[in-house]
């Protein structure tokens, strides 16, 4: 699996270390939500500190 992380503040994926969130956790969240990048901004992403929607 490629090493990439989501840049805080922009939600953009950038190459590099996975950071505080393991790749598998981000990938699983993206697949389950079906919303991709938007899901990271609105769900449990350390650093954003927002929980606007609960499943």
Question: What do these coordinates show?
Answer:
Residues 1-23 are annotated as: Disordered. The protein is built from two helices and two strands. The longest helix has 11 residues, at 23-33. By secondary structure, it is an alpha+beta fold. A hairpin with a 6-residue loop joins β1 and β2 (13-15). The model has no long low-confidence stretch (mean pLDDT 58). The protein has a two-stranded antiparallel sheet. It has one domain (4-42). It has helices spanning 23-33, 37-42; strands at residues 4-6, 13-15.
Number of domains: 1
Output the structural class: alpha+beta
Order of neighbouring strands in the sheet with most strands: 1-2
Poorly predicted residue ranges: none
Question: How many DSSP helices?
Answer: 2
Rg over CA atoms, rounded to whole Å, is 10 Å
- Distance linking N and C termini: 27 Å
Mean pLDDT: 58
Shape: elongated
Count every beta strand, where a strand is a DSSP E run of 2 or more residues. 2
Q: How are helices and strands ordered from N to C?
A: EEHH
Sketch the major β-sheet: 2 strands, antiparallel
How much of the sequence is in beta strands? 5-15%
- Helical content stands at 25-40%
Describe the secondary structure blueprint for this structure.
Elements: E1 4-6, E2 13-15, H1 23-33, H2 37-42
Antiparallel strand pairs: 1-2
Key terms for this structure?
elongated
Short description:
The protein has one domain (4-42). It is 31% helix and 11% strand.
């Amino acid at each position: 699996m490629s090493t990439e992380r989501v840049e805080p503040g922009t939600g953009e994926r950038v190459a590099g270390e996975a950071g505080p969130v393991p790749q598998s956790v981000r990938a699983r969240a993206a697949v389950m939500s079906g919303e991709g990048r938007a899901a990271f901004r609105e769900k449990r992403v350390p650093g954003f500190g927002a929980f606007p929607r609960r499943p």
